[in-house]
Design goal:
The chain is built from twelve helices and 55 strands. By secondary structure, the chain is mainly beta. The strands form twelve sheets. The protein has a 22-stranded antiparallel β-barrel. A five-stranded mixed sheet has the order 13-18-19-16-17. Strands 1, 2, 5 and 9 form a four-stranded mixed sheet that branches. Helix 8 packs antiparallel against helix 9. The longest helix is centred in the N-terminal third of the chain and has 20 residues. It is globular, with a radius of gyration of 33 Å. About 40% of the residues are buried.
Length: about 1000
Amino acid sequence: MRSKFKWIFTLLLAFTMQFSFAQEKTVTGVVSDKSGPLPGANVVVKGTTRSAQADFDGKYSIKTKAGEVLVFSFTGYTNSNVTVGAASTYNVTLVEGSVKLEEVVVEGYRNTTKSTTVVAQSTVNAKTIENRPNASFIQTLQGQVAGLNIATGSGQPGSRSVVLLRGLATLTANSDPLYVIDGIPTNADNFRSINPNDIESATVLKDASATAIYGNRGTNGVIVIKTRRGGKDEGKTKFRYATSSGFTELQTAHYRKANTRQLLTLEKNYGQGLGATLTDAEIAAYNVDTDWSKYFFRTAASTEHSFSVETQGKQISSYTSVNYLNQDGILKGTGLKRFAFRNNIDGKSTDGKFNYSTNVAIGFSKSNDAGSLGTAAVNRNYVLGAYQGAPYLSPDDYVDSVTALDQYGAGGLLYTPIFLIDKQKTYVNNTDEMRLQGSIEASYEIFKNTTFTSRTSSEVVETRFNQSENPISFNALVFLNPGQEFGGFEDINYRRDFAFSQLWQMDWEKTFAEKHTFNVMLNSEYNFNQLNTNNFRQNGLDPATFVPGAGTGYLSDILAHDYYTADVSALKLKKNLISYFATVDYDFDKRFGVVVTARRDGSSRFSKERRWGNFWSIGTRWNLGNESFIKKYNLFDVLKLRASYGATGNERVDDGTIYASLNPSLFLDTYSTVPNVYNGTNGYAFQLGNVDARWETTKQLDLGLDFEMFKNRLRGTFDWYLRTTFDIFDRTPISPITGQQDIKGNSIIDVVNQGVELSLAYDVVRNQNLKITVKGTGAYNDNRVYDIDVNNGQRIDGNYITANGNQVYEYYVIPYAGVNPVNGNLLFTAADGSLTESPVEGDRRITHKSEQPVYQGSFGFDIDYKGFFVTSNFTFAQKVWRFDFDMDGLYDPTGISNFNVSSDLLDAWTPTNTNTNIPSLNATNKGEDARSDRFLRDASYVRLRYLQVGYRVPKKFLEKTFLSSASLYAQGENLKTWTRWQGFDAESPRAGDQNQYPTPKIISFGIDLRF
């Protein structure tokens, strides 16, 4: 019995000791390097969210269990792992290294590291992209990458941005970069359906060594987007919930618009309009003063919710997220709603030879657009009414559509705001977009060092556009034809864009004699795109049964007239691209490297004779920081020289979507029927195709330097590039005997962009409690065109000229010289220097001014102090010019009695007011300023693009909660702009703005919880 008791007691004691061994305990120690303690060093229990940070003396304290692994890390040092045993104190000495340089660089078809890459690239990580209050993540890249100019000229939520990398390299072709999401080529038209919080990184590939592997799609650069994945180590499932709410409002313009009394006085002086019928006393007593911009624009609200789940595992992991966004536009009636879902799975076999991944993303967006913006449609353009509506009218003047028609009959265009109020109430303009994107990738190590990979991906974007004009609306009533009983219309347009891509890839990598490493990659790829559209318009609607989008209220055509005939059209376009390409990457001892790329593309866009093209690049690097003669100075943590040269192409030779120039194809002769050619009979029109048409080609030389100094406190990249684009697509003159003056094709024109780019970041303070980082980017681009062989080396397009030795599309106008004090007419400077009131075309001058900025960049700072953080980003563009057509409209005296104008016209020339720069209201040559530089303005700016202030709750306050991390923040976009531009937005990409939707100021507040 005693023996049995001893056995039970011994077993219980062993169990108790094992249980005690597995209990948490507090481990302490000091983290240091060869020079002493490392304040701020990180200590993490591997595979968990438990972590600690060393204090000013390098001391740390963390709860852990025996058997767990502590990972010690510090920027610029090699990580150190320690397995916890029975001891409670572990002192660790970290060794300086270039860990940061070994970060993975995503180059699209292959991944490299910072130390071995030869390409010019910039990577923007998730921290910069996530939780920003932009419907399209592309807008968040502005100011983050040197040489990348992004401008969004519309405040419509989710609107498309104009992206230009390293200058404009073409005359008529498309200048968009290629976008690749998880290996799937796509375009920027549909980013409003993507959740920015799903993006792990966006890498901008700039030089030929980076983009030649994309062949005839790589000239304008490539933006490679990588979405989030699950963790690779064993660990618990991670959850994240982020939400934000905010508001947007109209930015401030600096136009001096007339108020009611000023406008009535101007009408009295002009002798037209309501003011001409009133006495001075009646004008002074008029008490209606409407600011129509406050009526049509609003302070709009936005809300966003994101939830994600991340599983971790050595064999399989996943990332799943859902997102909902509801963002109202500042223009009443506009807005965007988005729902997005994503699931990414990664897995591998137990022996690691077989790896696979799947990506599935679904996005649905519903946008309400304004329509007709930027036009002179007084009955359709809301912004025109907001900017130029007469202030002595009131929204209360609107009664209904029939009354609006009567007001139009009595007052004409004066009642423009009333027409637009009616449109707001009777007009529908909705776009529903469903985006489905999926891919599957599998790789297998078929031999030692040899891996075969297959990736299949597809994307379907379906868009349904519904626009309707109620039959009982001002616009329907005013355009009724005699004998037409019902008006109005409804458009239902359906678009289906399908993309398919198949990649086969073989990789071989081998190291010889421990210093010579070769990597060879062979690829074959097929890309297919198909567009189907169906467009339908019903003319004439029955107001008794019409419901927008329901197909009700449609009227049948009658014998008396054809007013109710439906218009129907359909379109089907296809595009194929077959490619074979390879890279050879050689590395010597992590010191020298060479990468050679070759690609052959066959595109169905061109004729069989011109279908195939060859593209190539060679890139080299010298890791000077690994050389002993550099190491001995202990100055550089990283120092690398890069050089590359190669040729890329641009197959999108006509601007627009990827389907531009496919209908009809460039190389086909086309025939079309033309009515009433001779004696009332039909005839044929003939348009010559060009079988020799081919892509534009760009050759680019890039020299770069990457460096890190002072234990990674100072980090920077410098690049100099020279891009020459030839075979420029243009309309080339041909013999008139063919029946036409010119033909689309490649010319001998060259466009050259030469510039420098610099990115810098410096940690001014970096310790346990405080980190202050200042950062900045800058770029200079010199754009020139050569070898125009017609019209004395000049290509003239209205107010623009492209001339040999100058920039593409410079302003070509007549100098405005002010006001003639004798008669109040406009004066201009003639070619011989004299002043004239009647300029001729020969008086135009090359201004050497362009809408493309010469200098651009950003600067800002990041501060992190005991959980409080501040992030800022200022962007700038200099030497950029645009026409201010909104000001032109406000300075036009012919609008008096119909529209509002600038109060500056009160100082217009009169016989008693001759010393003024405002021409007479009755100037006889007012129209001549359309050819002049009178309203050409400097659009350079500095903008506080982004500011975020927040607080990260210390982990010690979360230890007894389910949360592993919690932060709250307030942030703003477009907060302040310093510029001479007087309009609403200096950052617009358009050469001239008039009555456009301005980008807003955005303020939002949010929380980010992880558990």
